[in-house]
Amino acid sequence: MRATHSIHGGIHPVEAKALSAPGTVLDAGIPDKLVLPLSQHIGRQPEVIVEVGETVKGGQVLALGDGPMSVPLHAPTSGTITAIDDRAVPHPSGLTNRCIELSCDGNDDWVALEGLANWREIDRTALISAISLSGVAGMGGAGFPTAVKLNSPATQPIRTLIINGTECEPYISADDTLMQIDAPAIVEGAEILAHIVNAEEILFAVEDNKPIALAAMQEAVDASESNCRREVMSFPTKYPSGGEKQLIEILTGLQVPSGGLPAHLGIVCQNPGTAVAVREAILMGKPLTERIVTLTGRALNKPGNYRVRLGTPISHLLAVTAFDPKDNQRLIHGGPMMGFALESSDVPIIKTTNCVLVPTEQELPTPPPAQACIRCGLCAEACPASLLPQQLYWYARAKDQEQLEKHHLFDCIECGACSWVCPSHIPLVQYYRAAKGSIVDTRAEKTRSDRSRDRFEARQERVERELAAREAQRAARRAAAQKKAEQGADDDPIAAAIARAKAKKQTAEDPLGAPAGNDES
Amino acid sequence: MSFIETQPLLAALIALLGLGVTFGAILGFASIRFRTEGNPLADQINQILPQTQCGQCGYPGCKPYATAIADGDAINKCPPGGQETIDALADLLDVESMTLDAEHGEEKAPKVAYIREEDCIGCTKCIQACPVDAILGAAKLMHTVIADECTGCDLCLDPCPVDCIDMIERKTGIQHWRWELPSDNLIASDRAAA
Ligand code: SF4
Ligand code: SF4
Ligand code: SF4
Ligand code: SF4
User: Fold this and answer.
1) Three-state DSSP class for residue B69
2) Residue A325 CB less than 6 A away from ligand 1
3) How far apart (Å, rounded) are the C-alpha atoms in residues A251 and A205?
4) N or C: which end of chain A has fewer CB within 10 A?
5) What pLDDT does residue A513 have?
C-alpha cells in the first residue's frame, strides 16, 4: 500500500460508533405518510408536476429538476398525494419549506424501471443525465448534485476518483455499514463513476477504525476487474480526516489551494452511498428514494443503521427505535460535531441525512456558558485547515470582513474541532457560519447596488436627453413662427401652406412625442 | 568674487524662488495632465451608498447625497443603508461613526415592489416614478416589476392611482436565512449546533 500523509491539527473525540452496531441494516418500514421537501440538495428547487389527489407509484417523478443545479424528486413508494404545502424541514433555521405529502397505500407498487446495462458503451453526457434524472445528490452531507460534480470541463481532466469512506464523525456508521454489506456494489458504482470522469485510478479511503469494512472493500476490489489502477487505503483515525481537502492531503500529499476545488488537482471525491446510488441509477434505472441512516444515541433503546425511505418523519423513526424521552433534551440532525439541533421530531429524513442523534443529557451534556477567550492557542493547534480560529473569532465579532477574508475564513470546513478543544467553550463555528453568511450577503448586495447605480445613471441620462430634445424642438418651433411673422402677408400663400405641412409632418414623425413607457423595451 | 559670496541672502532667496517656481510648474502641469474626472471622494462615497435611490436622505438620489457628504453633510441620513453604511462611511472619511438620523426614517428589511396585476389600469405613472427603470409595461396594458432590478425605494407607491402596488419583503424563506452571530454577552449556546 502507498504511504499516507498526515494533516495539521485534528482531534480524537469519543467515537461511540459501536452503539449503532455497524454491519447490520434494519428496516424502518413504510410509515403512513411521507413528507418530501422539494429542496434536498444545494441548488434550485425542482418544479412539482403532480397534483393533490393524484395517485402515484414508487419511482414516479413528483418534481422535475429546474436547470443543471437542480435534481428531480421521486415517490419512494405508492400512494396518494395528500398535500403540497410548507412544512418544517431539517434545517438549522427551523423554518418551513415547500413539501409534498404522500399518504402511502402500503402496497409499494413501483413503475417499471429500466437500466443501462451496457453503460461502458454509452457516452458520458448520457450517463450524467441519467444520474441527474435519478435525483442523485451527494449523500455525505452537503448534498451537491452528483451530476454537476461529474461534469468537469474538458480543460480539467480528472485523474483520480476517491471514494470517501472515512466517516470520521463520531457516532455515525452508515457508510461503515454500507461498506460491510455492499462492498461489491460500491466498487461497481465507483467503476461507473471512474468511467464517466475518465479517471485512471480509484482510491477507496477507509479509516483504520473500520477493519471489517476495510477487509470487505479489499475483497470486493480483488474479486472484480477494472481498467483503472485501484487501491484500498487505510490511515489512522482522526477527526476530521474525512473533510474533502483533508482526505486528499492524507492520500496524495497534495494540498487543494485556498479557494480552489479538488478538480483543480484532477481529483474528484464521492461518498460510498453516492456510488451505490449511481450504480442503481445506471444499472437498474432506480431513482434515489431511500438511504441508510444511523439512528443512534443512548436515549434510543434500539439504535442501529436503518434503511429509511426518504420523507419518513423522524417521529416515526423514534417509535421504531424505542425512544425513551426520560433523559433526552436534544435531537440532532447529523453527528455531534457538524450536525445541528432540530426543534421538533416532525421533520422528515432527506437525501443528506446520514444520522439522527438522540443523546441523553449525561452522554452529550449541554455546554456550559461561554467564557472569555484566554488566548491559549489550542484552537489553532486543532484546526485541520491550518487557520487561526482565535483571530477569526475576534474578526467575526468585530465584523471585519476584510480581515476575515484575508485570514481565509472560506477555507474553514466548519468541522468544529476548534470549538471542541476550546477551554472557554466558545461556540466558535457559529461565529464563522454567521460571518460567512454576512460576507455572502454583502457581496450579493454590492452586485445589486452596482447594477442599480448603472440603471439609475442610464435613466438620468435618458431623462436629460429627452428634456434637451424637447427643449430644442420647442426652440425650433418658436423660430419658425417668428420667421413666418417677419415674412408677413405679402408672402406666397402656396409656399406658406407647404411649409406648414412640412412642419406638421416633422412633429408627427418625431419619436419624442411618444409616451415614456415605450422606452422600456 | 562670486555673487553668492557677496550677496548670500539674495542668492538664497533667488534659489528658493527658483525651486518654488519649478515645482509649482510641475505640480500645475501634473494637475492638468493627470486630472481625474469628477469628484473622486464623492465617487468613493457613492460606492458605499446602497443605491436604493429613494430620496429619503433629502437628495434626489444617492449620488447627489454622496456629493453633499463630500462637501461636509452628515453621514447618517440614509435609512436603507442603515448602520452598516454609516460605519463604512465613517471608516472611509475617518470620522466618528453615529447612529441613523431618525428624521429621515428607520432601517427596514429590504423590500421589492409587487404590482397586483389584476388591479393595474396601465396608467404608466409608476414607470415614470421608478428611478431604475424596474417596471415594464405600456399604456393601458398591465405593468409588472422586474424584482431583480427593483431597489425597494417606494417611489412608485404614491403615483399609483389605484393603489395596486404592494411592497413585500425581499429576503424571506429558507435560502435567505443566515446563522446569527452568538450574542456577545456569551450565553450558553448549543454546542452540537456550533
Ligand atoms: S481555544 Fe478558545 S480560549 Fe483558546 S485561543 Fe482558541 S478561542 Fe481562545
Ligand atoms: S471549524 Fe473551521 S476554524 Fe475551526 S477547526 Fe474546523 S476548519 Fe478550523
Ligand atoms: S436615502 Fe435613499 S437616495 Fe439617499 S443615499 Fe440612501 S438610498 Fe440613496
Ligand atoms: S419598482 Fe417601485 S419600489 Fe422598485 S425601484 Fe421602481 S419605483 Fe422603486
Assistant:
1) helix
2) no
3) 8
4) C
5) 43
CATH topology of domain B40-104: 3-methyladenine DNA Glycosylase II; Chain A, domain 3 (1.10.15)
Q: Which residue has the cell 418544479?
A: A47
Average pLDDT value for residue range A117-137: 90
Q: How many residues does chain B have?
A: 194
A199: pLDDT confidence band, cut at 50, 70 and 90?
very high
A426 Cβ closer than 6 Å to some ligand 1 atom: yes
pLDDT at A131: 92
Between CA B79 and CA B100 the distance in angstroms is: 7
Residue A439 to residue B151: CA distance in whole angstroms: 20
Question: With an 8 Å Cβ cutoff, are A332 and B134 in contact?
Answer: no
Band of residue B32 on the pLDDT scale cut at 50, 70, 90? confident
**Cα angle vertex A241, ends A392, A178, to 5°?**
135
Shortest-distance Cα residue to atom 4 of ligand 1: A376
What number does CATH give the domain A18-309? 3.40.50.11540
A268: which strand partners?
A161
Residues having CB closer than 6 A to ligand 4 are: B 113, 129-130, 132, 134-135, 145, 150-156
Tell me which amino acid residue A193 is: L
* Distance of alpha carbon A325 from alpha carbon A327, whole angstroms: 6
Paired residues of A64 in beta bridges? A47
Q: How far apart are CA A55 and CA A77, in angstroms?
A: 11
List pocket residues of ligand 2, CB cut-off 6 Å: A 382-385, 387, 389, 412-418, 428-429, 432
**Hey, is the C-beta of A13 within 8 angstroms of any chain B C-beta?**
no
Give yes or no for residue B133 having a pLDDT over 70. yes
Domain ranges of chain B: 40-104, 109-171
Peptide bond into A240 cis (omega under 30): yes
Alpha carbon distance A466, A516 (integer Å): 10
Residues 455-474 of A with CB under 8 A from B: 455-460
| Contact residues on chain B for A450, CB-CB shorter than 8 A | 51
What chain A residue is nearest to B43 in terms of C-alpha separation? Answer: A453
Q: Is the dihedral of CA A75, A76, A77, A81 positive or negative?
A: negative
* Single-letter residue type at A259: G
Whole-number Å distance between alpha carbons of A143 and A354:
11
In sequence order, what are the beta bridge partners of A205?
A164, A233
B109-171 folds as: Alpha-Beta Plaits (3.30.70)
Name which of A93, A453, A455 is nearest B133 (Cβ-Cβ). A455
- pLDDT of res. A69: 81
How far separated are the first and last CA of chain B, in Å rounded? 87
> What percent of chain A is predicted at pLDDT more than 70?
93
Q: Using the beta-carbon criterion (under 8 Å), do A451 and B136 form an inter-chain contact? A: no
pLDDT at A209 over 50: yes
Predicted local distance difference test score (pLDDT) of residue A67: 79
Q: What is the ipTM of this complex?
A: 0.78
Q: Do A516 and B128 touch (CB under 8 A)?
A: yes
CB atoms under 10 Å from CB of A163, counted, come to 27
Rounded Cα distance between A458 and B34, Å, is 27
